[in-house]
Amino acid sequence: MQVSEVFSGAVKSVVGRRKQLRVARDSATGFASEEERLASFQRALDALNAEVEAEVGAPDLAHLQRIAAASRALEIAGRTLIHFSLDPVTFGAGVASLSAHKALELMEVGHMALHGAYEKLPLEKFHAKGFTWKAPIDEKSWMLGHNVRHHQYTNIAGRDPDLDFGQLRLAGGIKHRRLHRFQPVTNVISWFAFSNAINLHVSGMLDIYLDKQEPAVLRDRSSKTEREAHKTFLSKYLRYHAKEYVVFPLLAGPFFLKTLLGNVLSDMARDVYAGAIIYCGHVGASDFPADTKAQSRGHWYAMQVEAAYNIDLPLLWSIFGGALDKQIEHHLFPRLPPNRLREIAPRVRAICEEHGVTYRSASWPKRLKQVLRELSKLSVADAAA
Question: In whole angstroms, what is the distance from residue 355 CA to residue 326 CA?
Answer without folding.
Answer: 19
